[in-house]
Amino acid sequence: MNPSLKRTLGLWDLVFMNIVAIVGLRWLLTAARTGYSSLILWGLALAVFFIPQGYAIHILSRKYPQEGGIYVWTRELFGSKHGFMAGWCYWINNLIYYPALLMFLAGNALFIFGSRYAHLTDDRLYIALFSLIMLWLVILINVRGLSLGKWIHNFGGIGVWIPIGALIALAFAYLIKEGPAEPFRWRALVPEFSNSSTWSFWATMCFGFAGLELMSLLGEEIKKPLRNIPRAIVISGIAITAVYVLGTFALLVALPKSEIGLLAGIVQSIGTLSEHFDLAWLGILSALFIALSGVGGVSAWIAGVARVPFVIGLDRYLPSALGKLHPKWQTPHVSLLVQGGLTTLFILFSVVGSTVEEAYLVLLDAEIILYFIPYLYMFAAAYRVGKANWRGRWAGILGFTATALAMLFALIPPEGVNALMFEVKVIGGTVVFVGSGMLIYWRRKK
Question: Which domains does the chain have, with CATH numbers?
Answer without folding.
Answer: 11-445 (1.20.1740.10)
